[in-house]
Structure of Ribosomal protein L11 methyltransferase:
Amino acid sequence: MAWIQLRLNATAESADTISDTLMELGAASVTFLDAQDTPVFEPLPGETRLWGDTDVVGLFDAIVDMKPVIEQLKQLPELANQMTYKVEALEDKDWEREWMENFHPMQFGRRLWICPSWREAPEPDAVNVLLDPGLAFGTGTHPTTALCLTWLDGLDLSAKSVVDFGCGSGILAIAAIKLGAADVVGLDIDPQALTASADNAERNGVKDQLTVYLPKDQPDNIQADVVVANILAGPLRELAPVISALVKQGGQLALSGLLQEQAEELRAIYGQWFDLNPTAIEGDWCRLDGTKR
């Protein structure tokens, strides 16, 4: 497939707005590049990982007429006074393989490694999760996923039940099983996430220990010893009673996908049911965790 790349020079203050606008205008993907052309992978709403002068790169199908796109971008207040950009045709590449080249094995905590399914595990005797995320979120490269993986590695999950709320690629659910959990339920609103989770569970030889559901299909009254929800602050706020009800009395909960400035509001909400530990922070992101009273 042929592509057109639109590259705009931006500042830390304008990059997020430009990125959002490019997606609204039909970009298939948006990447932030620093002055040395180093890509920022897996950006999420609210995330800014910039190094001063920043280029925002939108990738469009080659059939897209770029003139209206350029005109719409010129209407942005952030670009009204100065808009430096370059439009270029890209050679036809296997972009999935290009991404695969940059996904490497990563260690979390003492025992746990997340390994791309197409690479060899660096420590065969460690707790290795073989992962192919497909179209679902969750590779371990994002701080919110890393915070949750490290938390799971620090728990004694032997014979425990676990719910992964918003399971995505299944990375947290499968890690919990590999770390000793007896059975795990994965919940997600995206059918593609359930497919990715099931495929990755089979790849890791744990498919019999993972059951996945869309919310409308999940059994009533599910409760677990451990619940992890790596989503975003809005759903964590709105679904607080639902998520909290999934945790058994005395059970453990971890919440991530929230920025540092969102932590206190979420702490106040979940503090109604949980004794929460100090906030764990990585970059702009954080994790709340605690025990249900």
Summary: The first helix runs from residue 15 to 24. The radius of gyration is 21 Å. The domain at 103-292 is CATH 3.40.50.150 (Rossmann fold).
